[in-house]
Amino acid sequence: GPGRIVLGIETSCDETGAGLVRLEPDGSMRLLADSVASSVEQHARFGGVVPEIASRAHLEAMEPTVRRALDEAGLSLSDVDAVAVTAGPGLAGALMVGVSAAKAYAAALNVPLYGVNHLLGHVAVDVLEHGPLPPRCLAMLVSGGHTQLLSVSGIAGEVTEIGSTIDDAAGEAYDKVARILELPYPGGPPIDRMAREGDPNAIAFPRGLTGPRDAKFDFSFSGLKTAVARWVEQTREAGMQLPIADIAASFQEAVADVLTRKAVLAAAELGLDTMVLSGGVAANSRISALAKERCSEAGITLRVPRPRLCTDNGAMIAAVGAHVMATELDPSPLGISAVPGLPV
Ligand code: KG4
Ligand code: ZN
């Protein structure tokens, strides 16, 4: 039929994603299905993702997840015109399961295979929701594994890293602080919820790397985490009740302040008038609200995919695949392998 169907497969961390995107004859893209199976509950008692558990979970979830995506779209495997898969960055074993599965699908269906960059997927996914992106934009990726400011020239084009975290990722900071506060893993959602009841100015937690001699566009969250841990310890030692909501709100304000301040500054300096905010942490209510406020003041158009598309999924990988197909770049050889440390 008209339009070409791309199956996207994502297994870089703890989410097994299978998504289907149709590249229309006019070059636009349509999201047809987005199926995700998560092993997050199996990692919860360890307080972080355990690579071996993630790999096994991907292996078990792969076929049913692809099947669910096809069912959701009312399609069958023979309708698939190309397969796109996350080649990296991510966990080596986890990536390998996805890449192997994608090769098998591409070989069996005799269709092209595209190995894609996970980080670009987080940006490209917004096209499915808000239409084409301008030729150049700034992306702020904030997740459990990444905290990066990227200058993006076309989804299938160039990506330059403007800045990144020098220690913990933003999501990691949420997860570690949640652990200190004895809140469940992953820590982002419970802290976000608790923070609504608290005072963001109750405790003056440090804003990492905001001094005059610090790297302008890099981030640091480990000092913030340590400051929270110390504050909690001292309060406990003094025999006082922990004001969990105030701690959550003050911690969240420190993260939101630094992230949005640096992102807006980077966009302004690079002359970029569009910003895409994506990754699991983009779902945070305060970070997205403050980004909106500061972007609007600076005359920057902010684009935030809906939360379901901000977290890892297969549709974002299919979106990059469809872009590459649209630009008629060569597909990846079937011999491609997972690249855990794939650079941007
Ligand atoms: O993008 P993602 O699903 O996976 C990767 O890490 O690639 O991001 C997961 C991270 C976790 O650290 C989780 O705590 C965080 O996103 N997160 C949040 C929120 N929802 C999820 N952080 C802050 N606020 C939230 N509402
Ligand atoms: Zn991700």
Automatic annotation (TrEMBL):
| Alphabetic keyword roster | Acyltransferase, Cytoplasm, Iron, Metal-binding, Transferase, tRNA processing
**Cofactor requirement:** Fe(2+)
Q: What is its EC number?
A: 2.3.1.234
Q: Does the keyword Transferase apply?
A: yes
- Recite the UniProt cofactor note for this protein: Binds 1 Fe(2+) ion per subunit.
Q: Name one GO biological process term.
A: tRNA threonylcarbamoyladenosine modification
GO-annotated molecular function: iron ion binding; tRNA N(6)-L-threonylcarbamoyladenine synthase activity
Family annotation (PROSITE patterns): GLYCOPROTEASE (PS01016)
Would I find tRNA processing among this entry's keywords? yes
Q: Which reaction does it catalyse?
A: L-threonylcarbamoyladenylate + adenosine(37) in tRNA = N(6)-L-threonylcarbamoyladenosine(37) in tRNA + AMP + H(+)
Enzyme class, spelled out: transferase
Q: Where does substrate bind?
A: L141, V142, S143, G144, G145, D175, G188, D192, N284
Extract the InterPro entries matched here.
ATPase_NBD (IPR043129), Gcp-like_dom (IPR000905), KAE1/TsaD (IPR017861), Peptidase_M22_CS (IPR017860), TsaD (IPR022450)
Q: Which domain of life is it from?
A: Bacteria
Which residues make up the binding site for Fe cation? H118, H122, D312
Q: Where in the cell is it found?
A: Cytoplasm
Q: Name one GO cellular component term.
A: cytoplasm
Which residue intervals define the domain Gcp-like in the entry?
A: 31-318
Describe the function of this protein. Answer: Required for the formation of a threonylcarbamoyl group on adenosine at position 37 (t(6)A37) in tRNAs that read codons beginning with adenine. Is involved in the transfer of the threonylcarbamoyl moiety of threonylcarbamoyl-AMP (TC-AMP) to the N6 group of A37, together with TsaE and TsaB. TsaD likely plays a direct catalytic role in this reaction.
Family the entry assigns = Belongs to the KAE1 / TsaD family.
Note the HAMAP family from the entry: TsaD
- Name the NCBIfam families for this protein: gcp_kae1, T6A_TsaD_YgjD
Q: What is this protein called?
A: tRNA N6-adenosine threonylcarbamoyltransferase
